Amino acid sequence: MNLLIYGPPGSGKGTQAELLIKAFAIPHIATGDMLRAEVAARTPLGVIAGPIMADGGYVPDEVMIGMIRNRLQQPDSQKGFIMDGFPRTIPQAEALDALMAELGRKFSRVLYLRVPTHELVKRLAGRMTCPIDQKTYPPGTKTCPVDGATLVQRDDDHPEAVHKRIEVYHEKTLPLLTYYKRQGLVSQIDGQGTMEEIHQRISAALEESARVAKQ
Ligand code: ADP
User: Fold this and answer.
1) Phi and psi at residue 30, in whole multiples of 5°?
2) Is the minimum distance from the CB of 165 to ligand 1 under 6 angstroms?
3) How far is the CA of 165 from the centre of ligand 1 (A)?
4) For 37, 69, 129, 136, which has the most beta carbons within 10 A of its beta carbon?
5) What is the pTM of this model?
6) What's the 145 CA to ligand 1 centre distance in angstroms?
7) Is 109 noted as a catalytic residue in this protein?
8) Strand 136-137 and strand 81-84: pairing?
9) Residue 139 region, left (φ>0) first, then alpha (ψ -120 to 50), else beta?
10) Is 32 within 8 Å of 136 (Cβ atoms)?
11) Contact 116, 4 (CB under 8 A)
12) How confident is the model over 126-176, as pLDDT tens digits?
């Protein structure tokens, strides 16, 4: 199963992707996490990406497309994957379609997590992140309940970057919804509620699309 999880920053893509990889035993391909690893390791790519990310902008398409091309060629993605954070622009989506065709793969479903903007701002500004597993917790949480690490604020979770991320999302990423709707791939999921409720909605949407596909 090749899944794409799509939605605005703070919509819970990462959290839901983690639940799906457990359910389906497929890798999570998250470009935000991949970029943060490059920044932490101070690689040449990380040195370019770090300031762009901290400001809430997008890393150039050519860089991202190259990164995904390498990632999809690794053997663990052969059995399927859940992609999160890519594509974010129409040129990225077009390049991904070409790459998938070249690899003889197709998306099974695009899961669109819908959350109103005021709720996104509330979730992102001040949320705390575990430096070990990248899981996020509400503002004010100090230590990670899983591994005890001291939580940190992501460089791009300060108010200016949050507003810019939402603005850039509307301008460059929202048009992908029409792009994938035209391909008949989108399941729209209400992204408000508990983690488990949203996971249940996703599971129901995947079952429904599998049922329709069999008919
Ligand atoms: P979120 O969806 O919560 O904003 P991510 O962890 O997916 O966070 O991404 C963090 C940042 O990494 C983005 O704001 C952007 O700067 C950069 N980034 C991640 N994926 C892409 C991409 N496909 N194209 C351009 N920039 C990207």
Assistant:
1) -120, 110
2) yes
3) 9
4) 129
5) 0.91
6) 25
7) no
8) unpaired
9) beta
10) no
11) no
12) 889 999 888 888 888 999 999 999 999 988 998 899 999 999 999 999 999
